[in-house]
Amino acid sequence: MKIAVLHGQMHRGSTYHLTHSVLDRLGGEGAEIREFFMPRDTPGYCVGCYKCFMEGEMKCPHSDAVQPIVAALEEADVIILDSPCYVFGMTGQLKTTLDHVGYLWMSHRPSATMFRKVGLVISTAAGAGASKVTKDLRTQLFFWGVPVIHRWSVKVAAFNWQSVKPETIQRIERKASKLAKQIRKEVNSARPGFKTRMIFRIMRLSQKGNKWNPLDREHWVREGWMDSERPW
């Protein structure tokens, strides 16, 4: 099993520990885990040059930082995005990274590999807001085409992991075990449901009339998606 993790933070706080509570149970002999930490691995800010959309992702001025992350995502069986809640949203560092892969959305040039993966999005907050973060992170995975996405948000009622109550940690460990067991079952069998297929169909129809971006349309033609081929 290959797992790619995008951490929205460098510090190893509550969100990091939730993620690793799952990784510790998913990892094992033969497991390959690649972790990226923001801001250490964050590309420069997207400058809105449209080069990734119009000329190709390698034309992005930050492609040297972006493409190793994309390669890990495409190779993975499981993708995990995590971020603590900062002002009711994900960290700016993680959002900056995700801004750079908008070209992978179904409306542009989705990767066929995404439609067979399992996703997990995780967030914690001392108070409210973690659920909002996981909702936003799930949106990213959905529009990449990831068919199975688990959301896990926890109000830890603490400002650091060391202050989290033992009973809360016990609940976290039980949830991590259930998630890891479920994900193991879904790897290699995940397939898109009705909503993903519907959005894909709408995007396919859009590409048939696409005259503003030949690069996107050529991608769909090359994959055979304009005809009978599908990425699942």
Task: Write a concise synopsis of the structure shown.
The protein is of the alpha/beta class.
**What's the tally of helices?**
8
Summarize the biggest pleated sheet: 5 strands, parallel
* Strand segment count: 5
Write out the strand line-up for the largest beta sheet, numbering strands in chain order.
2-1-3-4-5
The best one-word shape is: globular
Spans of at least 5 consecutive residues whose pLDDT stays below 50 are: none
β-sheet strand percentage: 5-15%
Give me the secondary-structure category: alpha/beta
What's the gyration radius in Å? Answer: 18 Å
State the end-to-end distance. Answer: 19 Å
Question: Topology as H/E string?
Answer: EHEHHEHEHEHHH
* Helix-residue proportion: 40-55%
Average pLDDT over all residues: 97
Report on this model:
There is one protein chain. The protein has 232 residues and is of the alpha/beta class. Helices cover 43% and strands 14% of the residues. The chain has eight helices and five strands. It has helices spanning 14-26, 51-54, 63-75, 92-99, 130-144, 166-186, 194-208, 214-223, and strands at residues 2-7, 32-37, 78-82, 118-125, 148-155. Strands 2-1-3-4-5 form a five-stranded parallel beta sheet, with helices on both faces. Helix 4 (92-99) links the parallel strand 3 (78-82) and strand 4 (118-125).
Could you give the topology of this structure?
Blueprint: E1 2-7, H1 14-26, E2 32-37, H2 51-54, H3 63-75, E3 78-82, H4 92-99, E4 118-125, H5 130-144, E5 148-155, H6 166-186, H7 194-208, H8 214-223
Parallel strand pairs: 1-2, 1-3, 3-4, 4-5
Helix pairs in contact: 1-6
